[in-house]
Design brief:
The protein is an alpha/beta fold. It has a single domain, classed as 3-Layer(aba) Sandwich (Rossmann fold). It has 2 helices and 3 strands. The chain has a 3-stranded parallel sheet, with helices on both faces. The N and C termini lie far apart (33 Å).
């Protein structure tokens, strides 16, 4: 099972990626985050194999 973290500031994009990934066998979305800081927290908490990260998020 591949464990995935989704990090994107747009909720609609996170939902779309989750829907696509949830439909695939062998992939589990373990967490979502709306910014980089939350992404780091979720990565530490859930230890995903893959992080799908938006490269153009506002903030620090």
């Amino acid at each position: 099972m591949i464990r995935v973290l989704i990090v994107d500031d747009q909720a609609l994009m996170r939902a779309g990626f989750r829907a696509l990934l949830d439909a695939e066998d062998g992939i589990e979305v373990v967490a979502e985050a709306a910014d980089g800081r939350q992404g780091l927290e979720q990565a530490r908490r859930h230890v995903p194999d893959v992080a799908l990260v938006d490269v153009q998020m506002p903030g620090e």
